[in-house]
Amino acid sequence: MYALNIDPLNPKGNPTIAELRNLGVKAVRYSYKDASSGSQLDSQRLSFYSNHLQGLLQANIDPLIILTYETYPGAPIHPVTDAVWDNYIAAFARRAGQLAQMLAPLQPTFQVWNEPDLPPHPEYIRTMPEAVFGRMLRRTYDAIKAAAPQTRVIAAGLGSGNWNWLASVITSQKGSLPADAIAIHPYGQRPEPNWPSSTWGFGYVGNLIANYGRVTSLPLVISEIGEQHLDRPQQAEYLWRFYRTIINQFSSSVERVFWFCYSDGMVSPYGLLDANSQPKPAHQTFRTLATAAPPDHQPGLMTLTAIVNKADYDNMVRNPAQKLEIAADLRVDGVLHRQGEISYRGTTSLNFPKKGFKIKFAKKQLYQGNTRRIDLSSSYSDKSLIRERLSFDLFAKTKVTVSKAWHVDYAIRSREGQVLERGVYTGLEHVDEYFFRNRQREIGSLFQANGGVINGVFVGATLDPQPPELLPLLYEKDHPEDGDFSDLDAFIRTLTSWDANTIAQFLDQILDVEAYLDWLAVNTLVQANDNYHKNYYVHRRPADDKREILPWDYDLSWGRSWNDFCDGLCDDLSEGTSIKGSNQLNNALSKRVLNNSVFYQRLRAKLTDLLNNEFTEAKLFAKIDGYYNDIRALVQQDPKKWPTNEQFEQERDRLKDWIRRRRAFLFKELGTPPSQLADTIVAAVGFGKPTLVEGETLTFEATVRNMGGAITGGTVGVAFLVDGTYITFGTSPALEAGGSRVIKAVAPWTATVGEHTLTAVVDDINRYPEASETNNSLAVKFQVERKPAPGLADTLIRDIAFERLEGGQVRLAALVANVGTAETTAQVGVAFFVDDKYTTFGIISPLPAGDEKPVRAQQALNLTGSHKITAIVDDINRYPEQNEQNNVLVKQVNFGAPGPAPLADTLILNLSLGQSRFNEGDLLTFEALVRNIGTAATGEVVGVAFLVNGQQITFGNTSALTAGESRTVRAVTPWRAVAGRHRLTAVVDDVNRYPEISETNNAFELEFQVLPSTGPALPDSTLDALGFERTPSGQITLSAVVSNTGSAATPDVVGVAFFVNGQYATYGLTPPMAAGATQTIRAVQPLSLRGKQTITAIVDDINRYDEVTTQNNALTREFTF
User: In this predicted structure, what is the pLDDT of residue 1100?
Assistant: First the structure.
């Protein structure tokens, strides 16, 4: 998700690989620049970019290469003829194919062009018409796929926000966009509906994404997003909010977000760095987001659903030993990740009814942007289903590098919605390169100890020397996957060259001994007898060249053991495995370490510390109860678990009993009695008031409990801190073991406005020894409201009503009254809910005291029958009020029976004859601009009949038009022009293929003249295109591209009148134009325009001169400002 725009050719825009990894960048985007115009690539540039891509590939950073006018020179300047464009497109596509062929091994994705949809401008060379871009995309896509079929191609990043432009491109390509994804550049879009304010920018990015989603179902990439108008702290806030919105709400449809850009040295002020290459606040924000590790899912559950083809699932179930990987869309906690895979995992567990699973995410849609694989352990042999999670929790308290573990509500569904499997599993981070990257570490050689069957006998992976050909049978090399076991062989032979007496002198040179002793200690505590001959990793750390042992697979632990006679499903819960048990002594490394007196004493010290501080009844029993509460309801519905529901409940007490017995056994073996110490915790903290107001005096209080086995010292003290600053304290007499007491502060605190954190710390100055010194504090957040100022507004809703619109829809309205003593300090907004679901909103200007006004919803709704309508005024607290409790009104409203069925209604907006000057004998092709102004789609075919002087000449047709859609329909055959004046009539739906709201508005007429073969020379001013520019103040200057296609110059100035939604708004002028000249005429007056508007321009609107024809003087277009 976290990606960045860079520029390798710009020293200030070319971060090193190390900087990219430090930032957490997962992908970069930049233009391929080659100024050579020949048929071959510039070899020096190719070498430069190849080397850069090689570095990215090794760092596992995905490259997105933009192919633009800088990739092949000579791009036409708009507007030009199709022939000029097509000549350039041919050369451009050829170069794209060459690049794809040369760079394919380096795995780039290509993006075709950049922002071709911006409004036409003579100086903006990247702009092109929709049909031209469609041809460029098609030719380039085909060239790349022919050279490198697996290479991904995405469409240009679109910057106008006009999704209809993309729809026109798709139409030009017969309804199929030749791309693997689309891209947008949503500059100026709010990351949240009301941030920085409800009127800031051009709209909410979520609406823009939804609109493009209606045009195509292809995945979407945000290939540029940045901010230039906010100050630096606000720019960082914008970045944080934008990524949060995309990840939380749109990660199922948005593949990646590329921030623009790395440095102000590229384009100021967009960079994460300033022009002097110093980090701006946005730099740290990006890094914090992009390098965040996967969240710990405890307490609670992950919900994970795999959506698969049932035939694939059936095949996987029939052949479990093959561990077939099948395609799956993966929905994790409500977020959809497409193109993933699932398969069975494990070896022994494949024989159980409930099997483990491997969950694999696509590289382009990593879980939370940084995790490729999650493993699900079925824990079938564990009646409690929590042993594995308890084990990994305990490892996390040590120096062992360990996966996070959590519980998962896992289901497999068919694409038709059938539930194929569902159960409770233990989720584990898979140990791979992403695992280490999420810990800001590199991965080295990684071997998984599995053991194997040799000559019909199981042989353990016990780190004993083996012939080279046997090592791959006992260990699996996970990284790098090259089949080279020499590194592991050297490690084994080195450690076994030392005996128990000498190993302490040398082992630290090749192994992280401290972490290994922690691994041994936890294995000893949980009695993990299954983890010395298999179920662990050997990892060689690149940072210091030392090995480390990583834990794996702990369902057979905490009293559970494997026995052949019961296939591991024995139920004895024995606690008596010795510190130097037979399993430990069968492993070459643990045998030597345990038999070395120095290492053994260090291990004893670790065991004693863990027994007194972590492996305690107080901590473990509370955790067990918590996990049982998390999963109980789902366990009871799990059809494939081993225990009955009754046995599951009983196992909690049996597990606690085993912990007591195991602790007693180990303390006896260590020869040290368990410490009898107090252990005070803060169970609750507060101030005894439900609402807090500025200026109030608050007396803090803390509930303190002694969880230990002995009485505290003579005094129990609690320090109270607000926002990390010490404020006051409270004291109490000694607490007996198991006792609890409320301790109040000796002095109050005067509340200040804002959000605060209250922290209570018991025994803050260490008056007495405790079993744990890490559990003494508890923090809570609280809010202090501002004291109401005199003279405040107070808005309430007096009534809810609706008005019915043409077409049968309804618009909700609320009558809002300000019963306060002051005008509202901001606009008054009302949120409308239908049957308790948010539906729409309305907003009006500030409301004076004592006034009341209706607030109409902005969106019309399709409602019939009776519904519960809820209206909330000032729902997002735009202004302070005397009373915040009277903002809601709920009313049951009957909207009546459904109105008449929606119908299409097609009419013709304009006619065109294909040219401006018509001479006798010319072939004229008629075109009609048709719009459906109805409330429903037309029939499958929309036909237009063309008549000249009342006689039908030809026809044209197109596919169905949705409500509100417009399209040009072209005649299938031309008409040979006859000299004289004529009347052209176009009739849409002339043979009544579909019902319409009105059948009387289907025709459109215009008169035109065909000149004899000789005639007077006249000018002919015609409109080619409409556009606009934004002034520095944000206003809009409209423009029109005008051509004189006649045979004479205009005798006077050329004027253009501009209309907005049919109303005259402004004009523009240019000096007389020669025959054949083209000129852009800009309006003399800028306008304040927002949203979607219909713009009409009329050239020579007041008939300053005679022309060949006046039928081509108008042009209408819709723009989104």
Answer: 93
